[in-house]
Amino acid sequence: MLDRRSFLASLSALAAAPSVLSAQDGMVATVTGDVPVRDLGMVLMHEHVLVDFIGADRVSRSRYNADEVFEVALPHLREVKELGCRTLVDATPAFLGRNVALLQRLSEASGLLIVSNTGYYGAAGDKHLPAHAFKESARELAQRWINEARRGIDGTDILPGFMKIGVDGVELSDVDRKLVEAAGIAHKETGLPIASHTGAGPAHQELDVLEQAGVPLDAFIWVHAQAADDAQLKRAAERGAWVEFDGVGPDTVDRHVQLVKMMAEAGHLGRVLVSHDAGWYHVGEERGGNFRPFDTVFRRFVPAVREALGEEAVTRLMVTNPARALARRR
After folding, report:
1. Which domain holds residue 64?
2. Nearest by Cα to 328 from 3, 24, 6, 9
3. Can you tell me the distance from the alpha carbon of 169 to that of 186, in angstroms, rounded to the nearest whole number?
């Protein structure tokens, strides 16, 4: 058992680890500007600072006090920075509460690099899709995301570091297929990776759509993949996709370690990403409700993986794989 000082020292050494990525090229847009992926350090690939589930037709920044959100979230970001995290990927999409100006403020105050996104979220029964998503073509939707990638989000000069989409069910609906097609078009124009909320759903149908469009499948991140069966996970990795186990929490550490071990034994550790899907300030609840901290990966999951698979596996999961997954291709 490591004492706290030794534990933090080992995480800090991993977070620094520039030699691990000395040959790694590529950049990623953070809310404070472009950063070489070799400088991302230890990365949490899927978290949230704020989420508003009211629906695309009613979501509004007038529904919360940004200063209060800042006050609630900042201690959690500072804590995870102290634990060795260097970069946090905020997966809150447009029409679900995305606020890049707030993220930039939190990044500057906490010292964490924060990555935001473009794209539309078609899960949850399409509740979070704007009306124009049903009317416009895949090309028209893609152009909206391309514009954000080139010009900035919501009138700022802050650029997205990836695309966030979401799909429902076991078969792609028409609108969900259109979102995947739009993401493929936008990827080919911008080089941004595509993270899709999928769970146990139609990941391989998404991969088929992207493959037919000529998109390299290592541009695709299967979000919430811990819900799927092992055979589907292995097949996705064999096809080149990223498989993201992002439900790490106090009660799920053992399950996530088992998933990582399974993928490692199958020779696919190099296709695995991990995170909590934690946070968040929940708009509509008093002071955002119960904000789940971002610490379990560092306090419990990382030591468990180190014990099971060794230090190299930790570095691959927390440093090398995220850098490769987030690297912009243009």
Report:
1. 29-326
2. 24
3. 24
